[in-house]
Design a protein that fits this description.
It is built from three helices and eight strands. By secondary structure, the chain is of the alpha+beta class. The protein has a single domain, classed as Porin (Beta Barrel), CATH 2.40.160.20. It is elongated and about 65 Å long. It starts with a helix and ends in a 14-residue tail after the last strand. The N terminus and C terminus are likely disordered.
């Protein structure tokens, strides 16, 4: 009988410890939903800021947990589409004649380290800026199209036509490493809920994200970035573990 009592006491203590730690963990977890635009940057856009004339879209979800008042870790899942089109630009005029275009789906999984500049945004009032960086992996399905190329404008011996032959013989990537770097701001609405706005630039070190390289600019790697708004919810709830009531 004494052994049963001691075992019950030990189980109750372990259960209480698990209950406290599980509750603490749940109270620190945050879940986010995000939506916005996905912007391609590469051979088919003259702007260093990307192809804003052919914006794509993206939807995402995240889970994060603070390590201390300033630093948090965050897991992201994002799905979207991006595209680029030479014909969207009138200058320089050769883009209208080259008229390459592409579109691609993007499924990205990433892990981030987030630094809240002024501390935990849920413990503050007003706007709270944050910056982040990490490592991601993107699954892509690239559809390239060179059928509108004006071959009279670009002679056979030009770098465009010879480069295109090389590009078409080169397979497009199915997956690429992506290195996100970004910043955002949050505004708390309640103790648990906050709004966010952020931008994130992805470095890929890949030149076939748009399907073209040698017929474009082989020295310019293809990248993409996103601009999004979202909501974060800090989870709170009762632990489902039921501990015994000890009596003797």
């Amino acid at each position: 009988m004494q052994l049963i009592f001691r075992t019950t006491i030990l189980f109750a203590l372990l259960c209480t410890f698990a209950n406290v730690n599980a509750q603490s963990l749940l109270n620190r977890l945050e879940f986010g939903l995000h939506a916005g635009t996905l912007i391609y940057q590469g051979d088919l856009t003259p702007s260093r800021f990307g192809s804003y004339r052919t914006p794509g879209w993206q939807l995402g979800a995240s889970a994060s947990m603070p390590l201390n008042n300033f630093l948090a870790v965050r897991a992201n899942l994002m799905y979207g589409r991006m595209k680029g089109d030479d014909a969207a630009y009138a200058h320089p005029d050769w883009r209208q004649h080259r008229s390459f275009n592409f579109n691609s789906s993007v499924l990205e999984v990433s892990g981030l380290a987030v630094w809240n500049v002024f501390g935990d945004p849920q413990h503050r009032t007003g706007l709270s800026p944050y910056i982040f960086s990490g490592l991601g992996f993107s699954f892509v399905k690239v559809n390239r199209d060179a059928s509108n190329l004006d071959r009279d404008y670009f002679p056979a011996e030009s770098g465009v036509q010879s480069g295109l032959e090389t590009d078409l013989a080169h397979s497009t990537p199915r997956a690429v490493f992506a290195f996100p770097v970004g910043a955002g701001v949050r505004y708390p609405l309640t103790e648990r809920l906050s709004l966010s706005a952020e931008t994130s630039y992805r470095i890929t070190f890949n030149d076939y994200l748009d399907g073209f390289s040698q017929s474009g600019n082989p020295d310019l790697k293809d990248n993409y970035h996103s601009i999004s708004i979202g909501v974060f919810y800090r989870f709170r709830g009762n632990n489902s573990v039921k501990c015994p009531v000890v009596s003797r």
